[in-house]
C-alpha cells in the first residue's frame, strides 16, 4: 500500500491530499455529524476521520453515524 494506492482510490493526483478530524467529538447527533462531514467534503477536503475515542455513544451510534456519513 502507500500514498499511490490512496491517490488511486481517491482519484486525486498532483496536489496534497487534504483531510480533517471532525470536531467536536462529543455532543453532535449522528445527523449533525454527517452534516459536518458533508460540509467538509463540499468545501474541498478529500477525506474526514472520526476522533479515536468517539466509538459508539448512546447519543450517536456508530451505525447511524456511518449511514449519515455515507450519504454525505
Task: Write up this protein.
The chain is mostly helical and 72 residues long. The protein has one domain. The chain is 43% helix and 8% strand. It is built from three helices and two strands, in the order H-E-H-E-H. The protein has a two-stranded parallel sheet. Helix 2 (30-42) packs parallel to helix 3. The longest helix is centred in the middle third of the chain and has 13 residues, at 30-42. It is elongated. It starts with a helix and ends with a helix. InterPro entries: RuBisCO, RuBisCo_large_chain_AS, RuBisCO_lsu_C, RuBisCO_lsu_C_sf. This is ribulose-bisphosphate carboxylase. One of its GO terms (cellular component) is plastid. It is found in: Plastid. It holds the Pfam family RuBisCO_large.
Q: What brief labels describe this structure?
A:
mainly alpha; 72 residues; two-stranded parallel ribbon; 2 strands
List the helices and strands and how they pair.
Blueprint: H1 3-10, E1 19-21, H2 30-42, E2 47-49, H3 62-71
Parallel strand pairs: 1-2
Short summary:
The chain has 72 residues and is mainly alpha-helical. 43% of the residues lie in helices and 8% in strands.
Strand content: 5-15%
Q: Give the beta-strand count.
A: 2
Biggest sheet: strand arrangement: 1-2
**Tally of individual domains:** 1
- Please outline the major beta sheet: 2 strands, parallel
* Helix/strand structural class: mainly alpha
Percent of residues in helices: 40-55%
Averaging pLDDT over every residue, what do you get? Answer: 92
Which H/E pattern describes the elements?
HEHEH
Distance between the termini: 26 Å
What Rg do the Cα atoms give? Answer: 13 Å
Amino acid at each position: 500500500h502507500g500514498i499511490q494506492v490512496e491517490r488511486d482510490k481517491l482519484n486525486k493526483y498532483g496536489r496534497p491530499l487534504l483531510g480533517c478530524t471532525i470536531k467536536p467529538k462529543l455532543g453532535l447527533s449522528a445527523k449533525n455529524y454527517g452534516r459536518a462531514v458533508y460540509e467538509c467534503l463540499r468545501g474541498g477536503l478529500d477525506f474526514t476521520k472520526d476522533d479515536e475515542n468517539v466509538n459508539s455513544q448512546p447519543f450517536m451510534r456508530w451505525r447511524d453515524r456511518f449511514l449519515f456519513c455515507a450519504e454525505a
